[in-house]
Protein backbone atom coordinates (compact mmCIF):
# COMPACT_ATOMS: atom_id res chain seq x y z
CA UNK A 1 0.00 0.00 0.00
CA UNK A 2 1.36 3.41 -0.99
CA UNK A 3 2.26 5.56 1.99
CA UNK A 4 3.05 8.98 0.59
CA UNK A 5 1.73 11.94 -1.39
CA UNK A 6 3.96 14.23 -3.45
CA UNK A 7 3.33 17.97 -3.72
CA UNK A 8 4.89 20.33 -6.25
CA UNK A 9 4.84 23.95 -5.07
CA UNK A 10 5.80 26.19 -7.99
CA UNK A 11 6.13 29.67 -6.50
CA UNK A 12 7.23 33.08 -7.74
CA UNK A 13 10.81 32.48 -6.66
CA UNK A 14 11.37 28.72 -6.71
CA UNK A 15 10.00 25.26 -7.43
CA UNK A 16 9.70 22.90 -4.50
CA UNK A 17 8.82 19.21 -4.29
CA UNK A 18 7.74 17.93 -0.88
CA UNK A 19 6.74 14.39 0.05
CA UNK A 20 4.31 13.89 2.95
CA UNK A 21 3.26 10.82 4.91
CA UNK A 22 -0.24 10.02 6.13
CA UNK A 23 0.22 12.16 9.25
CA UNK A 24 0.98 15.23 7.15
CA UNK A 25 4.66 15.16 8.11
CA UNK A 26 7.38 16.10 5.61
CA UNK A 27 9.50 13.10 4.61
CA UNK A 28 11.74 14.85 2.12
CA UNK A 29 11.96 18.03 0.08
CA UNK A 30 14.04 19.74 -2.55
CA UNK A 31 13.83 23.22 -4.06
CA UNK A 32 15.47 25.21 -6.85
CA UNK A 33 15.25 28.93 -7.53
CA UNK A 34 14.67 30.30 -11.01
CA UNK A 35 15.68 33.58 -12.61
CA UNK A 36 13.70 36.80 -12.26
CA UNK A 37 13.82 38.60 -15.62
CA UNK A 38 13.22 42.35 -15.90
CA UNK A 39 13.31 43.24 -19.62
CA UNK A 40 11.78 46.67 -19.03
CA UNK A 41 10.83 48.89 -16.10
CA UNK A 42 7.81 47.42 -14.32
CA UNK A 43 8.04 44.11 -16.18
CA UNK A 44 8.76 40.74 -14.59
CA UNK A 45 9.08 37.48 -16.52
CA UNK A 46 9.98 33.84 -15.92
CA UNK A 47 11.45 31.40 -18.43
CA UNK A 48 8.93 28.51 -18.66
CA UNK A 49 11.43 25.91 -19.86
CA UNK A 50 13.71 26.71 -16.91
CA UNK A 51 10.82 26.14 -14.50
CA UNK A 52 9.93 22.85 -16.19
CA UNK A 53 13.57 21.74 -16.03
CA UNK A 54 13.77 22.68 -12.34
CA UNK A 55 10.54 20.80 -11.66
CA UNK A 56 12.03 17.60 -13.03
CA UNK A 57 15.16 18.02 -10.93
CA UNK A 58 13.37 18.69 -7.63
CA UNK A 59 11.03 15.73 -8.15
CA UNK A 60 13.90 13.30 -8.72
CA UNK A 61 15.88 14.77 -5.81
CA UNK A 62 12.98 14.55 -3.35
CA UNK A 63 12.32 10.92 -4.30
CA UNK A 64 16.01 10.07 -4.01
CA UNK A 65 16.36 11.71 -0.60
CA UNK A 66 13.43 9.67 0.70
CA UNK A 67 14.53 6.46 -1.03
CA UNK A 68 11.18 6.22 -2.81
CA UNK A 69 9.95 5.09 -6.23
CA UNK A 70 6.81 5.81 -8.21
CA UNK A 71 5.01 2.84 -6.66
CA UNK A 72 5.34 4.48 -3.23
CA UNK A 73 3.44 7.63 -4.26
CA UNK A 74 -0.36 7.51 -4.05
CA UNK A 75 -1.05 10.85 -5.72
CA UNK A 76 0.44 14.15 -6.84
CA UNK A 77 -0.76 17.67 -6.12
CA UNK A 78 0.24 20.89 -7.89
CA UNK A 79 0.27 24.31 -6.22
CA UNK A 80 1.39 27.29 -8.24
CA UNK A 81 2.05 31.01 -8.39
CA UNK A 82 -1.29 32.37 -9.52
CA UNK A 83 -2.03 34.78 -12.40
CA UNK A 84 1.40 34.26 -13.99
CA UNK A 85 0.50 33.88 -17.64
CA UNK A 86 2.07 31.91 -20.47
CA UNK A 87 1.11 30.59 -23.89
CA UNK A 88 2.66 27.65 -25.70
CA UNK A 89 2.33 25.64 -28.90
CA UNK A 90 0.42 22.48 -28.07
CA UNK A 91 2.03 20.57 -30.97
CA UNK A 92 5.62 21.28 -30.01
CA UNK A 93 5.51 22.47 -26.39
CA UNK A 94 7.44 25.62 -27.32
CA UNK A 95 6.37 28.69 -25.32
CA UNK A 96 5.49 31.86 -27.20
CA UNK A 97 7.96 33.84 -25.13
CA UNK A 98 8.44 34.13 -21.39
CA UNK A 99 5.73 33.86 -18.76
CA UNK A 100 4.36 37.23 -17.61
CA UNK A 101 4.48 37.18 -13.81
CA UNK A 102 1.55 38.29 -11.67
CA UNK A 103 3.52 41.26 -10.31
CA UNK A 104 4.25 42.60 -13.85
CA UNK A 105 2.46 45.91 -14.57
CA UNK A 106 2.77 46.16 -18.37
CA UNK A 107 -1.02 45.87 -18.72
CA UNK A 108 -1.74 49.20 -17.03
CA UNK A 109 -2.94 50.81 -20.27
CA UNK A 110 -5.09 47.80 -21.15
CA UNK A 111 -6.79 47.96 -17.75
CA UNK A 112 -7.43 51.70 -18.17
CA UNK A 113 -8.93 51.15 -21.61
CA UNK A 114 -11.20 48.37 -20.35
CA UNK A 115 -12.27 50.55 -17.41
CA UNK A 116 -13.48 53.37 -19.68
CA UNK A 117 -16.74 51.47 -20.08
CA UNK A 118 -17.97 50.62 -16.58
CA UNK A 119 -15.02 51.62 -14.42
CA UNK A 120 -12.53 49.53 -12.50
CA UNK A 121 -15.34 47.28 -11.22
CA UNK A 122 -16.73 46.63 -14.70
CA UNK A 123 -16.56 42.82 -14.32
CA UNK A 124 -16.51 42.51 -10.51
CA UNK A 125 -20.11 41.31 -10.15
CA UNK A 126 -19.31 38.35 -12.40
CA UNK A 127 -15.73 37.48 -11.49
CA UNK A 128 -15.21 39.06 -8.06
CA UNK A 129 -12.15 41.03 -9.21
CA UNK A 130 -11.40 44.65 -10.11
CA UNK A 131 -9.67 45.53 -13.34
CA UNK A 132 -6.00 45.43 -12.37
CA UNK A 133 -2.64 44.45 -13.81
CA UNK A 134 -2.54 41.59 -11.29
CA UNK A 135 -4.79 39.16 -13.16
CA UNK A 136 -4.25 36.78 -16.08
CA UNK A 137 -6.92 38.02 -18.50
CA UNK A 138 -5.31 41.41 -19.29
CA UNK A 139 -1.88 39.72 -19.46
CA UNK A 140 -3.17 37.21 -21.98
CA UNK A 141 -4.69 40.01 -24.02
CA UNK A 142 -1.34 41.82 -23.99
CA UNK A 143 0.44 38.71 -25.30
CA UNK A 144 -2.14 38.24 -28.06
CA UNK A 145 -1.80 41.89 -29.07
CA UNK A 146 2.01 42.06 -28.96
CA UNK A 147 3.54 38.66 -29.79
CA UNK A 148 3.85 38.24 -33.54
CA UNK A 149 1.72 35.44 -34.98
CA UNK A 150 0.22 34.47 -31.62
CA UNK A 151 -3.33 35.61 -32.29
CA UNK A 152 -3.42 33.73 -35.58
CA UNK A 153 -2.04 30.60 -33.91
CA UNK A 154 -4.66 30.89 -31.17
CA UNK A 155 -7.48 31.16 -33.69
CA UNK A 156 -6.18 28.03 -35.43
CA UNK A 157 -6.20 26.15 -32.10
CA UNK A 158 -2.42 25.80 -32.04
CA UNK A 159 -1.62 28.15 -29.14
CA UNK A 160 -2.97 27.41 -25.66
CA UNK A 161 -2.97 29.44 -22.45
CA UNK A 162 -2.38 28.48 -18.86
CA UNK A 163 -1.06 29.58 -15.52
CA UNK A 164 1.85 27.53 -14.15
CA UNK A 165 -0.45 24.72 -12.98
CA UNK A 166 -1.62 24.08 -16.53
CA UNK A 167 1.92 24.29 -17.93
CA UNK A 168 3.35 21.78 -15.45
CA UNK A 169 0.40 19.39 -15.68
CA UNK A 170 0.60 19.42 -19.47
CA UNK A 171 4.29 18.56 -19.35
CA UNK A 172 4.01 15.96 -16.58
CA UNK A 173 1.27 14.10 -18.46
CA UNK A 174 3.11 13.91 -21.74
CA UNK A 175 3.42 17.39 -23.17
CA UNK A 176 3.13 17.33 -26.96
CA UNK A 177 2.52 13.57 -26.71
CA UNK A 178 -0.90 13.61 -25.08
CA UNK A 179 -0.49 16.10 -22.26
CA UNK A 180 -3.77 17.25 -20.69
CA UNK A 181 -4.77 20.92 -20.79
CA UNK A 182 -6.58 21.58 -17.51
CA UNK A 183 -6.82 23.98 -14.61
CA UNK A 184 -8.78 24.06 -11.36
CA UNK A 185 -11.42 26.49 -10.14
CA UNK A 186 -9.05 28.43 -7.88
CA UNK A 187 -6.63 29.26 -10.67
CA UNK A 188 -9.44 29.95 -13.12
CA UNK A 189 -10.93 32.40 -10.61
CA UNK A 190 -7.75 34.50 -10.87
CA UNK A 191 -7.95 35.10 -14.61
CA UNK A 192 -10.89 37.58 -14.65
CA UNK A 193 -12.43 35.20 -17.19
CA UNK A 194 -14.44 32.79 -14.96
CA UNK A 195 -17.98 33.24 -13.65
CA UNK A 196 -17.86 32.77 -9.89
CA UNK A 197 -21.37 31.36 -9.63
CA UNK A 198 -21.12 28.74 -12.39
CA UNK A 199 -17.31 28.22 -12.40
CA UNK A 200 -17.42 28.32 -16.21
CA UNK A 201 -15.53 30.58 -18.59
CA UNK A 202 -17.33 33.86 -19.30
CA UNK A 203 -17.77 34.11 -23.07
CA UNK A 204 -18.71 37.80 -22.98
CA UNK A 205 -15.59 38.87 -21.06
CA UNK A 206 -13.47 36.77 -23.43
CA UNK A 207 -15.09 38.62 -26.32
CA UNK A 208 -14.44 42.03 -24.74
CA UNK A 209 -10.79 41.13 -24.13
CA UNK A 210 -10.53 39.55 -27.63
CA UNK A 211 -9.38 36.22 -26.17
CA UNK A 212 -10.28 33.09 -28.20
CA UNK A 213 -12.06 30.73 -25.79
CA UNK A 214 -10.40 27.77 -27.52
CA UNK A 215 -7.11 28.78 -25.83
CA UNK A 216 -8.44 28.24 -22.34
CA UNK A 217 -7.94 25.05 -20.32
CA UNK A 218 -10.82 22.91 -19.06
CA UNK A 219 -11.87 23.87 -15.53
CA UNK A 220 -11.98 21.03 -12.98
CA UNK A 221 -12.39 20.74 -9.18
CA UNK A 222 -9.36 21.36 -6.94
CA UNK A 223 -9.49 17.75 -5.76
CA UNK A 224 -10.76 15.42 -8.46
CA UNK A 225 -11.47 11.69 -7.97
CA UNK A 226 -11.82 11.45 -11.75
CA UNK A 227 -8.07 12.21 -12.02
CA UNK A 228 -6.69 14.96 -14.25
CA UNK A 229 -4.09 12.67 -15.81
CA UNK A 230 -1.20 10.33 -15.06
CA UNK A 231 2.53 10.98 -15.12
CA UNK A 232 4.50 9.20 -17.82
CA UNK A 233 6.88 6.35 -17.07
CA UNK A 234 9.66 8.21 -18.86
CA UNK A 235 9.04 11.37 -16.82
CA UNK A 236 10.69 12.56 -13.58
CA UNK A 237 8.53 10.35 -11.34
CA UNK A 238 9.57 7.27 -13.28
CA UNK A 239 6.08 5.77 -13.32
CA UNK A 240 2.37 6.39 -13.78
CA UNK A 241 1.00 8.32 -10.81
CA UNK A 242 -2.36 10.14 -10.70
CA UNK A 243 -2.32 13.93 -10.62
CA UNK A 244 -5.57 14.76 -8.87
CA UNK A 245 -5.05 17.90 -6.77
CA UNK A 246 -4.50 21.46 -8.00
CA UNK A 247 -4.75 24.68 -5.99
CA UNK A 248 -3.49 28.20 -6.48
CA UNK A 249 -0.72 28.78 -3.96
CA UNK A 250 -2.67 30.85 -1.44
CA UNK A 251 -5.75 28.67 -1.52
CA UNK A 252 -3.43 25.72 -0.98
CA UNK A 253 -2.02 27.46 2.11
CA UNK A 254 -5.56 28.00 3.42
CA UNK A 255 -6.24 24.26 3.04
CA UNK A 256 -2.88 23.46 4.63
CA UNK A 257 -3.89 25.69 7.55
CA UNK A 258 -7.16 23.71 7.83
CA UNK A 259 -9.30 26.81 7.20
CA UNK A 260 -12.34 24.68 6.44
CA UNK A 261 -14.96 26.68 8.34
CA UNK A 262 -16.47 30.02 7.35
CA UNK A 263 -14.68 33.03 8.90
CA UNK A 264 -11.39 31.17 9.42
CA UNK A 265 -8.47 33.30 8.20
CA UNK A 266 -4.85 32.69 7.30
CA UNK A 267 -2.09 35.05 6.22
CA UNK A 268 1.13 33.97 4.49
CA UNK A 269 4.30 35.98 5.12
CA UNK A 270 6.83 35.39 2.36
CA UNK A 271 8.00 37.64 -0.46
CA UNK A 272 4.42 38.89 -0.65
CA UNK A 273 1.53 38.35 1.73
CA UNK A 274 -1.90 36.97 1.05
CA UNK A 275 -4.74 36.91 3.54
CA UNK A 276 -7.64 34.56 2.80
CA UNK A 277 -10.89 34.20 4.72
CA UNK A 278 -13.12 31.18 4.06
CA UNK A 279 -16.71 32.39 3.47
CA UNK A 280 -18.23 28.94 2.91
CA UNK A 281 -20.67 28.43 0.05
CA UNK A 282 -21.60 32.12 0.13
CA UNK A 283 -20.21 34.53 -2.45
CA UNK A 284 -19.61 37.80 -0.58
CA UNK A 285 -19.09 40.81 -2.85
CA UNK A 286 -16.55 43.11 -1.24
CA UNK A 287 -17.36 46.77 -0.78
CA UNK A 288 -14.01 47.52 0.83
CA UNK A 289 -11.40 46.67 -1.79
CA UNK A 290 -11.02 42.91 -1.31
CA UNK A 291 -11.16 40.16 -3.90
CA UNK A 292 -13.98 37.64 -3.98
CA UNK A 293 -12.51 34.37 -5.13
CA UNK A 294 -12.76 30.58 -4.94
CA UNK A 295 -11.21 28.97 -1.86
CA UNK A 296 -11.49 25.36 -3.09
CA UNK A 297 -13.81 22.78 -4.57
CA UNK A 298 -13.39 19.14 -3.58
CA UNK A 299 -14.96 16.60 -5.93
CA UNK A 300 -18.73 16.97 -6.28
CA UNK A 301 -19.07 19.00 -3.09
CA UNK A 302 -20.23 22.61 -3.40
CA UNK A 303 -17.70 25.29 -4.26
CA UNK A 304 -16.26 27.07 -1.22
CA UNK A 305 -15.55 30.78 -1.65
CA UNK A 306 -13.27 33.29 0.04
CA UNK A 307 -12.42 36.94 0.54
CA UNK A 308 -8.79 37.76 -0.14
CA UNK A 309 -6.43 40.67 0.33
CA UNK A 310 -3.11 40.72 -1.49
CA UNK A 311 -0.02 42.66 -0.33
CA UNK A 312 2.62 42.82 -3.05
CA UNK A 313 5.72 43.71 -0.99
CA UNK A 314 6.38 42.20 2.42
CA UNK A 315 9.44 39.92 2.50
CA UNK A 316 10.43 41.49 -0.81
CA UNK A 317 10.74 44.78 1.06
CA UNK A 318 13.39 43.24 3.30
CA UNK A 319 15.17 41.88 0.22
CA UNK A 320 15.12 45.39 -1.25
CA UNK A 321 16.78 46.78 1.87
CA UNK A 322 19.42 44.04 1.57
CA UNK A 323 20.05 44.09 -2.18
CA UNK A 324 19.41 47.70 -3.19
CA UNK A 325 20.33 49.72 -0.10
CA UNK A 326 22.82 47.20 1.39
CA UNK A 327 21.28 47.98 4.78
CA UNK A 328 21.77 44.36 5.89
CA UNK A 329 23.90 41.45 4.69
CA UNK A 330 21.50 38.57 5.29
CA UNK A 331 17.71 38.48 5.19
CA UNK A 332 17.56 37.37 8.82
CA UNK A 333 19.63 40.39 9.94
CA UNK A 334 16.60 42.65 9.71
CA UNK A 335 15.22 41.62 13.09
CA UNK A 336 18.40 42.29 15.06
CA UNK A 337 18.86 45.64 13.33
CA UNK A 338 15.27 46.62 14.12
CA UNK A 339 15.82 45.65 17.78
CA UNK A 340 18.61 48.23 18.11
CA UNK A 341 15.91 50.89 18.55
CA UNK A 342 13.00 50.99 20.99
CA UNK A 343 10.43 52.09 18.41
CA UNK A 344 10.15 53.37 14.85
CA UNK A 345 11.22 56.90 15.78
CA UNK A 346 8.28 58.30 13.85
CA UNK A 347 9.44 56.69 10.58
CA UNK A 348 6.90 54.96 8.28
CA UNK A 349 7.75 53.02 5.13
CA UNK A 350 4.99 52.37 2.57
CA UNK A 351 6.39 49.94 -0.06
CA UNK A 352 4.12 50.90 -2.96
CA UNK A 353 6.89 50.08 -5.46
CA UNK A 354 4.38 49.06 -8.12
CA UNK A 355 1.28 50.67 -6.69
CA UNK A 356 -0.88 49.44 -3.82
CA UNK A 357 -2.93 46.26 -3.93
CA UNK A 358 -5.77 45.46 -1.49
CA UNK A 359 -7.66 47.27 -0.17
CA UNK A 360 -6.55 50.41 -2.04
CA UNK A 361 -5.98 49.26 -5.65
CA UNK A 362 -4.02 52.39 -6.52
CA UNK A 363 -1.75 51.88 -9.52
CA UNK A 364 -0.81 55.58 -9.26
CA UNK A 365 0.86 55.08 -5.86
CA UNK A 366 4.61 54.75 -5.35
CA UNK A 367 6.78 53.97 -2.35
CA UNK A 368 7.28 56.55 0.38
CA UNK A 369 9.39 56.83 3.54
CA UNK A 370 7.69 59.41 5.76
CA UNK A 371 8.49 61.00 9.10
CA UNK A 372 12.26 61.25 8.64
CA UNK A 373 14.15 63.50 11.05
CA UNK A 374 17.81 63.97 11.91
CA UNK A 375 17.22 61.45 14.70
CA UNK A 376 16.35 58.59 12.27
CA UNK A 377 18.84 55.73 11.95
CA UNK A 378 19.34 52.44 10.11
CA UNK A 379 17.51 50.71 12.95
CA UNK A 380 14.48 52.95 12.57
CA UNK A 381 14.31 52.21 8.84
CA UNK A 382 14.57 48.47 9.52
CA UNK A 383 11.85 48.65 12.15
CA UNK A 384 9.62 50.73 9.86
CA UNK A 385 10.00 48.08 7.15
CA UNK A 386 8.92 45.26 9.47
CA UNK A 387 6.05 47.32 10.84
CA UNK A 388 4.91 48.07 7.26
CA UNK A 389 4.25 44.35 6.79
CA UNK A 390 2.00 44.30 9.85
CA UNK A 391 0.24 47.57 8.96
CA UNK A 392 -0.64 46.28 5.49
CA UNK A 393 -2.08 43.14 7.07
CA UNK A 394 -4.19 45.33 9.37
CA UNK A 395 -5.46 47.25 6.32
CA UNK A 396 -6.72 44.01 4.77
CA UNK A 397 -8.16 42.67 8.00
CA UNK A 398 -10.10 45.88 8.62
CA UNK A 399 -11.60 45.53 5.14
CA UNK A 400 -12.63 41.93 5.92
CA UNK A 401 -14.22 42.98 9.19
CA UNK A 402 -16.11 45.76 7.40
CA UNK A 403 -17.37 43.41 4.67
CA UNK A 404 -18.57 40.85 7.21
CA UNK A 405 -19.69 43.18 10.01
CA UNK A 406 -17.73 41.19 12.58
CA UNK A 407 -14.26 41.01 14.10
CA UNK A 408 -11.59 38.35 13.76
CA UNK A 409 -10.79 36.33 16.89
CA UNK A 410 -7.40 34.94 15.79
CA UNK A 411 -5.08 34.82 12.79
CA UNK A 412 -3.31 31.71 11.49
CA UNK A 413 0.05 32.52 9.92
CA UNK A 414 2.63 30.74 7.80
CA UNK A 415 5.65 31.52 5.66
CA UNK A 416 9.31 32.30 6.21
CA UNK A 417 8.76 35.60 8.02
CA UNK A 418 6.72 34.02 10.82
CA UNK A 419 10.06 33.19 12.47
CA UNK A 420 10.65 36.91 12.95
CA UNK A 421 9.61 37.28 16.57
CA UNK A 422 9.53 41.09 16.50
CA UNK A 423 7.22 41.14 13.49
CA UNK A 424 4.83 38.50 14.83
CA UNK A 425 4.52 40.17 18.25
CA UNK A 426 3.93 43.56 16.65
CA UNK A 427 1.32 41.96 14.39
CA UNK A 428 -0.54 40.55 17.39
CA UNK A 429 -0.36 43.92 19.19
CA UNK A 430 -1.61 45.78 16.11
CA UNK A 431 -4.55 43.42 15.52
CA UNK A 432 -5.43 42.86 19.15
CA UNK A 433 -5.88 39.12 18.58
CA UNK A 434 -3.65 36.03 19.00
CA UNK A 435 -1.38 35.18 16.07
CA UNK A 436 -0.99 31.42 15.63
CA UNK A 437 1.74 29.50 13.78
CA UNK A 438 1.40 25.75 13.00
CA UNK A 439 4.18 23.19 13.33
CA UNK A 440 4.25 22.48 9.59
CA UNK A 441 4.90 25.84 7.96
CA UNK A 442 5.11 24.43 4.40
CA UNK A 443 1.37 24.91 4.31
CA UNK A 444 1.12 25.51 0.56
CA UNK A 445 2.65 22.13 -0.30
CA UNK A 446 0.72 20.45 2.51
CA UNK A 447 -2.58 21.91 1.33
CA UNK A 448 -2.29 20.66 -2.21
CA UNK A 449 -1.04 17.30 -0.90
CA UNK A 450 -4.29 17.11 1.07
CA UNK A 451 -6.30 17.94 -2.07
CA UNK A 452 -4.60 15.16 -4.03
CA UNK A 453 -4.80 12.65 -1.18
CA UNK A 454 -8.53 13.24 -0.66
CA UNK A 455 -9.18 12.40 -4.31
CA UNK A 456 -7.74 8.87 -3.93
CA UNK A 457 -8.94 8.27 -0.33
CA UNK A 458 -5.41 8.57 1.06
CA UNK A 459 -7.18 10.77 3.60
CA UNK A 460 -10.86 10.07 4.23
CA UNK A 461 -12.26 13.54 4.81
CA UNK A 462 -11.61 17.02 6.15
CA UNK A 463 -12.17 15.89 9.73
CA UNK A 464 -9.23 13.51 9.46
CA UNK A 465 -7.05 16.26 8.00
CA UNK A 466 -8.13 18.70 10.73
CA UNK A 467 -6.74 16.43 13.44
CA UNK A 468 -3.25 16.61 11.92
CA UNK A 469 -3.09 20.41 12.22
CA UNK A 470 -0.91 21.11 15.25
CA UNK A 471 0.03 24.39 16.90
CA UNK A 472 3.64 25.50 17.23
CA UNK A 473 3.47 28.98 18.78
CA UNK A 474 1.00 31.70 19.76
CA UNK A 475 1.77 35.41 20.13
CA UNK A 476 -0.70 37.07 22.48
CA UNK A 477 -1.40 40.79 21.99
CA UNK A 478 -0.24 43.44 24.44
CA UNK A 479 -3.53 45.20 25.10
CA UNK A 480 -1.67 48.28 26.39
CA UNK A 481 0.21 48.79 23.12
CA UNK A 482 -0.33 52.04 21.19
CA UNK A 483 0.14 50.18 17.89
CA UNK A 484 -3.58 49.83 17.03
CA UNK A 485 -4.31 53.47 17.84
CA UNK A 486 -1.65 56.17 17.47
CA UNK A 487 0.85 54.21 15.34
CA UNK A 488 -1.77 52.93 12.93
CA UNK A 489 -3.21 56.43 12.55
CA UNK A 490 0.22 57.68 11.49
CA UNK A 491 0.55 54.78 9.05
CA UNK A 492 -2.68 55.78 7.32
CA UNK A 493 -1.29 59.30 6.91
CA UNK A 494 1.83 57.88 5.27
CA UNK A 495 -0.26 55.73 2.91
CA UNK A 496 -2.17 58.83 1.77
CA UNK A 497 1.15 60.43 0.77
CA UNK A 498 1.72 57.69 -1.84
CA UNK A 499 -1.44 58.44 -3.82
CA UNK A 500 -1.35 60.16 -7.23
CA UNK A 501 2.45 60.04 -7.39
CA UNK A 502 2.24 58.78 -10.97
CA UNK A 503 0.32 60.87 -13.47
CA UNK A 504 -1.48 58.05 -15.24
CA UNK A 505 -2.89 60.27 -17.97
Outline the structure in words.
By secondary structure, this protein is an alpha/beta fold. Helix content is 32%, strand content 20%. It has helices at 48-66, 108-115, 124-127, 136-146, 150-155, 164-172, 185-188, 203-208, 249-256, 315-323, 333-338, 378-404, 421-431, 443-455, 462-468, 483-498, and strands spanning 4-10, 14-20, 26-33, 45-46, 73-80, 86-89, 99-100, 159-162, 182-184, 218-220, 229-230, 242-248, 265-269, 273-280, 291-296, 304-311, 348-350, 368-370, 411-414, 435-438, 471-475. The strands form six sheets. The protein has a seven-stranded mixed β-sheet with strand order 15-16-14-13-19-20-21. It has a six-stranded mixed β-sheet with strand order 3-2-1-5-12-11, with helices on both faces. It has a two-stranded antiparallel ribbon with strand order 4-7. Helix 13 (421-431) links the parallel strand 19 and strand 20. Helix 10 (315-323) runs antiparallel to helix 12 and helix 13 (421-431) crosses helix 16. The longest helix is centred in the last third of the chain and has 27 residues, at 378-404. It starts with a strand and ends in a 7-residue tail after the last helix. The mean pLDDT is 92.
